[in-house]
Design brief:
The complex is a heterodimer. By secondary structure, chain A is of the alpha+beta class. Chain A folds into three domains: 7-55, no CATH class; 61-119, no CATH class; 128-281, Cytochrome P460 (Chalcone isomerase), CATH 3.50.70.20. Chain A has helices at 7-13, 20-32, 34-51, 60-74, 77-119, 122-128, 186-195, 256-264, 276-281, and strands at 135-136, 142-143, 152-158, 179-184, 203-209, 216-224, 232-236, 247-248. In chain A, the strands form two sheets. Chain A has a five-stranded antiparallel β-sheet. In chain A, strands 1-2-8 form a three-stranded antiparallel β-sheet, with helices on one face. In chain A, helix 1 (7-13) crosses helix 3, helix 2 crosses helix 3 (34-51) and helix 4 (60-74) runs antiparallel to helix 7 (186-195). Chain B has a single domain (8-218), classed as Orthogonal Bundle (Rna Polymerase Sigma Factor, Chain: A), CATH 1.10.1740. Chain B has helices at residues 8-12, 27-40, 47-66, 69-85, 97-118, 139-157, 161-172, 177-184, 188-218. Chain B starts with 7 loop residues before the first helix and ends with a helix. Classes of the chains: A alpha+beta, B mainly alpha.
Amino acid sequence: MSCAFSKELLALHVENDLPETEGHAVAKHLLECAECEEFIAQLSRRQSQLKLLRREAIPESAFSRMRAEVLSQIEDSQRALGWSVWIERTLWLGFRRHALVFTSLAIAAVSATLFAQMRQPAWEDAAMSSNLAAVFGDNDALIRPSGYREWVSVGSSLEADGSDVSDPHAPAQSSSGLSHNVYMDRFAYRAFSETGKFPEGSVLVLETSGAAASQPIALQVSVKDSRFDGGWGFFDFTNSDGTIKDKVQSIAGKSSCRTCHEERAKSDHVFTQFHPALKTAT
Amino acid sequence: MNYGPDNSDIVHGTLSMARMPGTAISPEAAEVAQIVRLVLGGDTAAFERIITRYERRVMSIAIRVLGCHEDAHDATQEVFLRVFKYLHRLNLEKPIEPWLMRMTINVCRDLGRKKRQHHSTSLEHAPSEPITTNPTDDPFTGLAEEQQRQMLWKALGGLSENERVAIVLRDVEGLSTAEVAAILETPEVTIRSRISRGRLRLKELVDQMSKGAMNGGTR
């Protein structure tokens, strides 16, 4: 271009981004200069094309996947925040309301929780985390999930007195009147609700309890993990004396668990046909 | 359940920020403030409503700044984790959008730098995967538009990080220069300079590509 007029000003004028006085000066020049008028027409066409980029669509699945990942990570808010931010938040909000009272409470809460955390073994701490529902120790031994009663209860049943139905999950020495509850970790439940598929790492816990006891008398867990045959590992935490083990290795080979789950479960080794919450989810 | 507003204008058109700092609070901002209070009060599930409301805006900016869907997904996730983490720092008397968009740009910059250290990709490059658009009825028009679009994406990748961010916010997202300046916490005169240089560079790059395409086609 032979005209020495500022191209930078023209590039701003094309979208009215100049202050009024400069805008007037550019407009006046354009009335006299055909070369700059053509240049600004070209810029204007380019701007129109640039605005077409606004039409780019993003698939809904991209959002749902991102949302599920974020929500699973913040499920335990205190853990998601980390200690330093948690203290900062407590103090910050406390200061906004009742500075002294809240600060005192925050310090007390921090001290109490630190003390409790010091007493809690590291693996229990890890197993409490919602997105680490399955925590493995040495030799791929599964550590008993703690806090699973706060997961999603997907189904339960009560075995009536005198029932002659043979329940493969009932402990050997048990009598009737047992209740069976199945829990699923929240991340897996959310993913299954949205996709109809169990994500890697899904954990389902089958807890069997007596009528009066608060503690389970049998505990079986299945974990979707590609390291195991068929993509699922089956774990029985139940001791022969009715107590529950802290960790256990997967049931090896073609066990009755695996065979039954493979042959009779409706969806990917899971008896979704018996679990109301999963039937609804699909 | 859809808690969010109608997002169609966010995807397809200009969405100017409802308010700038210092102006009166709108009903929408009041609703957001209420949700924020719930989250800060311990109702973690309420945070999903914040995500649903702003996820399109955040992800579309991230795609345009990073030029890659996969990186944009990671960036969006990181943005909302940071929002959750620092939600207590948000001044509820002010709108959330500038804060959220500033965080989005910062996360994209961090991610871009990390990627460049490892691969020399992202901000200086065109998108690594095709991005779908609304199809036009005329196949010839559609093809020409698609070629222009691909050239623009490539040209955007040829801008400096500062120019690209300014162009994305001003020209693609449709914010005013004052709003871009507020988001980036940079003087408006600097923003105008970046926009000006970015537009001229973009034109130069697309012209070069068009010439190259024409020469290739006539050979």
